[in-house]
Amino acid sequence: MTDAPVRSSGRPKDPAKHEAILAAAKELFLDRGFAQANMQEVADRAGVSKLTLYSHFGDKTTLFVAAVRDHYDHHLPDTIFGDWDREDLRGALLDFARIYHNYLILPGTIAGRRLLRAPGAPPELSQEIWNIGPARIDAFLATTLAGLATRRVLELDDPHLAAVHLLALIRGDLFAQLGYGVQRHVPGEETEAYLASAVDLFLRAYARVPGDW
Fold first, then answer.
1. What is the set of domains in the chain, with CATH numbers?
2. Which of 3, 63, 142, 203 has the most C-beta neighbours closer than 10 Å?
3. CA geometry: angle at 37 spanning 136 and 41, to 5°?
C-alpha cells in the first residue's frame, strides 16, 4: 500500500512536532532507504499522528527533501557562505575546507549519497538534492573566486573550474574511501595536514603573487 497525502487542516504547525518528524525521518530513511520507509512508521517514531505528519509534509518525497535540507542546514551553516577575509586568504580557505570536509565525512552524508543510488529512489530526487547542497556550494565558490580575481588577488579565467578544482582537492581520496567503506578512521592531525596541503596547492595554482597569501 502506497503512502497517500492527506489534506492539511490548515492549523498552525507546531515547531516541536516539525523537528521531531524531521529527526524521525532522517533516522528511518538511513535505516530503511527511501523505498522501504513508510510514513506511518515516521509518524510512530516522531510520536505524532499520520494526519499531523501529512499536515507538515505533504508526501514522502517532500519529507525526504526536507530531511536532506535539514542535514545541510545543520552541517553547512550559512556562515560558510559569508565573505572571506581577504587579508588572510589562506586562513579563509582553510576555514572553508575544514567545514566542508567535516560535512563530507559525516556518516549521514555518506549514507545519504548511497540512498540516492539505491533502487526505488525517484530519479528526480538526485537533481533536487544536488540543487539544495552541491549546486549552492559551487555557485558560492565560483562567485567568491571571481570576486577575488576581479580584485587581482587570484589569477584565473574560469571561476567555476577553479571552484571545481578546490572542491576536488578538499575531498581527496578519503571521501571516496569512506563511500566504499574501506576507510573508517579519520586522524585529526593527518586531516589538518592534508587540508593545508590542498589549500596551498590551490593557491600555488591561482594566487596572483605566489607565496603572498
1. 15-71 (1.10.10.60), 76-206 (1.10.357.10)
2. 63
3. 115
Lookup result for grid cell 535539514: 70
DSSP labels for the chain?
Answer: ----------PPP-HHHHHHHHHHHHHHHHHHHHHH--HHHHHHHHTS-HHHHHHH-SSHHHHHHHHHHHHHHHHS-GGGGS---GGGHHHHHHHHHHHHHHHHTSHHHHHHHHHHHSTTS-HHHHHHHHHHTHHHHHHHHHHHHHHHHHTTSB--S-HHHHHHHHHHHHHHHHHHHHHHTS-----HHHHHHHHHHHHHHHHHHHBSSTT--
Contact 55, 116 (CB under 8 A): no
Cα 133–139–145 angle (5° rounding)?
Answer: 130
Amino acid type, 174: L
Express each pLDDT in 116-147 by its tens digit: 766 767 777 778 888 888 888 999 999 999 99
Give this prediction's pTM: 0.76
Q: Which residues make Cβ contacts (< 8 Å) with residue 138, sequence separation at least 6?
A: 160, 163, 164, 167
* Cα(8)–Cα(128) distance, integer angstroms: 24
